[in-house]
Amino acid sequence: MNKTLSLILTSALLPVLAFAAQETYRIDPVHSGVSFSIRHFFTKVPGSFGTFSGELVFDKDNLANTIATAEIDAASVNTHNADRDKHLLNDDFFSADRFPKMTFRSTNWKALGENQYEVLGDLTIRDVTKPVTLAVQLLGIGEGMGGKQISGWDASVTIDRREWGITYGQGVVGNEVEITLNIQAHLVP
């Protein structure tokens, strides 16, 4: 094969090969969780969100092509106390009637080691968008139930709620919110 033909074939195949490295995974909410904890006086009160969705376009060979997006329904908050959950939905906290969704979109992925990543992104709560940095671990990619390919992820970040305009309860409620994501995602065919 002459050099010109080889160069043309290589140039034509590079975009296909690069695209083949990208895989799109959709969060399986039945096997995933979004939880948080925040200090109340001297203890940490746990909570979670029951309704969320998201997608991950993962390119292990070129992290610049990797994008994670997520959406959380604020009204699905659960702290195992109906009165507190109701309070969290009002204007002191989430203002869920005006801002029903919290969103995240990654802006940069950086490999820190084998299956360890630092993920920068934009977190929007109450229509306020701020940058955050998540510590992310890829737990594995492989065959799940029914032969479908799945991926497993853990992620965590600590935010200061005041940056999103949530300041109610100073001195009683802490400002640092520890957020943990445990994600199983299915490959989108």
Task: Please tell me about this protein's structure.
The chain has 189 residues and is mainly beta. The chain is 14% helix and 55% strand. It contains 2 helices and 11 strands. An 8-stranded antiparallel β-barrel has the order 1-4-5-7-8-9-10-11. Strand 4 and strand 5 form a beta hairpin. The longest helix has 19 residues. The chain is globular. 19% of the residues are buried.
The description of the largest β-sheet is:
8 strands, antiparallel, barrel
Rg (CA only): 20 Å
Could you tell me the strand content as a percent range?
over 45%
Compressed to H and E, one letter per element, the order equals HEEEEEEHEEEEE
Structural class: mainly beta
Spans with pLDDT under 50 lasting ≥5 residues? 3-19
Helix-residue proportion? 10-25%
| Spatial order of strands in the largest sheet | 1-4-5-7-8-9-10-11
Task: Describe the global form.
Answer: globular
Q: Care to count the β-strands? A: 11
Helix count from the secondary structure assignment? 2
N-end to C-end Cα span: 36 Å
The overall pLDDT, averaged over residues, is: 92
Which terms would index this structure?
189 residues, 11 strands, mainly beta, eight-stranded antiparallel β-barrel, single chain, globular
Topology overview:
Layout: H1 3-21, E1 22-27, E2 33-40, E3 43-49, E4 52-59, E5 67-73, E6 77-78, H2 82-89, E7 101-113, E8 116-125, E9 128-143, E10 149-160, E11 173-187
Antiparallel strand pairs: 1-4, 1-11, 2-3, 2-11, 3-6, 4-5, 5-7, 7-8, 8-9, 9-10, 10-11
